[in-house]
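Hi R.,

As promised, here are both runs. First protein below:
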Amino acid sequence: MRKELVDKINANPDYHELVSKRSGFAIKLSIAMLVVYFTFILTIAFNPSALGTPLSADSVTTIGIPIGIAIIIFAFILTGIYTKRANGEFDDLSNKIKQSLKED
C-alpha cells in the first residue's frame, strides 16, 4: 500500500471512529464471553457438586450439561450480534472511508 494512501486513511476521522467503535464493541463481547466461560470453569473447579446435580431423581444427565450447551449457544448469539453490527454500522463506516478516498 502506498504511504500516501495510508496517511490519508489514518488522517480520516471516520477511520478513527470505526477503529474505536469496533474495538470497544469487540472487547465488551469478549469480556461477556470470558465471564460466562470462566464462571462455568471455576464452578467446575471449586464446586463440582453444583453442576453434578442430576436434572431429576431418576436422570443420569446433570445440570452441567444444559448449562454447557447454553454457554455454546451464548457464544453463537454473541457472534450473531457482532456480525449484525459489523454488517450494518461498521460496513457503513468502511464504505464512507472508501468513498472519501475515491473523491480525493
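And here is the second one, sequence first, then its C-alpha cells:
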Amino acid sequence: MAEDNQTDMELASIIVSRLLPKAEILKAWTGKEVVRIFKENKPDLILMDIQMPEMDGYDATQEIRKLDSQNRTRTPIIAINANAFKGEKERCLETGMDDQITKPIVSSMLQHILDKWLFMIEINRSEENDALPLNLSISTKKIIRSNK
C-alpha cells in the first residue's frame, strides 16, 4: 500500500513538472511535514495525499485551515484519494479541502484540476495586483528517501 502511494505521488510530481515546468514543487513525506512546509513556504496550491503517516491528510488540512484563517488567506487543497466511495468527496470538502482527485492519477484529470485552481489564484492575484512567483506543494508519502 505504501509503495502504491509513493508511485502515485511520484507520477503526480512528474505530471506537474511537465505541465508547469517553472513551478517549484515542494515534497513532504508526512502530514506534519506538509504543515511545516506550508508554514515556511506558503504554497499556492497543495495536492494532499489522504493516507500519510504521523498525521493524515484530513488532519493536516484542518491545521492548514487554522493557519489560513489567521492569515486571512485560503490556499486551495486538492485531495488525492484512493477511495472513490460515495460520500468521500463530501468528507474531503467538509474537512476543508477544495476538490478531489482519485487514484490512479491521470494526466488529463490533474491538468484539469491545476488549470481550474491556478486560474482562480491568478484571478485573485490580479485583483490584488500581487505578482508573487508560483509555488506548488505536493504532499506525498515517501517520495524521496535519501538514505534508504
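A quick note on the second one: Helices lie at 2-19, 31-41, 57-71, 88-95, 107-128. Let me know what you think.

Best,
J.
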